[in-house]
Amino acid sequence: MQDTRREKIIGTWYAVGAFIVWGLIPLYFKTLTQVPSMQMLAHRIFWTFLFVSILISLKNRWPEVRKIFSPQKNKVMSLLSALAISTNWMVFIIAVNTNHIVETSMGYFINPLLNVLLGTVFLKERLKFWHIVSVFLALIGVSYMTFKYGKIPWIALSLALSFGLYGLLRKISHVDSLLGLSAETAILSPFALYYLVAQRIHGTGVFAAASLITHLLLIGSGIVTAIPLLCFVHAARRIPLSTVGFIQYLAPSLHLFLGVIVFKEPFTTSHILGFGFIWSALIIYSLSHTPFMQNPGQHRLKDAEENQISAKY
Length: 313
What we know:
- By secondary structure, the protein is mostly helical.
- It contains 13 helices and no strands.
- The model is unreliable at 296-313 (pLDDT under 50).
């Protein structure tokens, strides 16, 4: 019993660590705003692949990576998930570079609710009453902000949709998170490296002309991408994914704090109202998994719902 309690404590700290890193990662990429977004994305892909490759080699798991590419279905799934996660990374980098960190917060607050819709549409999961209420409230919040500012919050919606699709694809493929990331970056890294070399040849590459600090930060982008993922994997093995799902709100909360307090992005009454609907939706969504709002016999989360959180990362 004591060992189980200790494992839960360790798992909780792993989860907190993972989501704190994800929440503070805008600070890291803010130091690289002098790097064009496409080059930043290419560096993030390439150095993530290199870092993950070292880990795979140390664990002697390359045979498992090769197995991922054996069935044709897995090849297609890996390609699609690679496109989804690279899109997510690209939009996030653009958001940081253009001072839209508050909008990234909105995207990751919306993401769990979007997962519910994706599970209903693609996995034929049953949409519960409180889930419908949650999605409806979130839709009101997004619609209100769209109406108020006269433009669709495309960064928030793109982040939520790309991350949601990534989670869906990873769930369908049933691939371990570390192995999946290695397969995805293996697909993307040749294109990333080609782009970086081409930029260098044309004299527009930042890496060769940059300072040592910039070199180290670009190389480190692979580490800050992979480390929280590994922490998440350790957490998911030790504590219920429903607990992990609750802790995940740390990341967008920190994004919001950084955007408003640190980088002084506007947070008006309209933002408060729009976010208020989204936060209300998340509170109802979270409470819907407790006995208080469930019918008898529904006190456990369905595996499909839990796996949505696991697959995302």
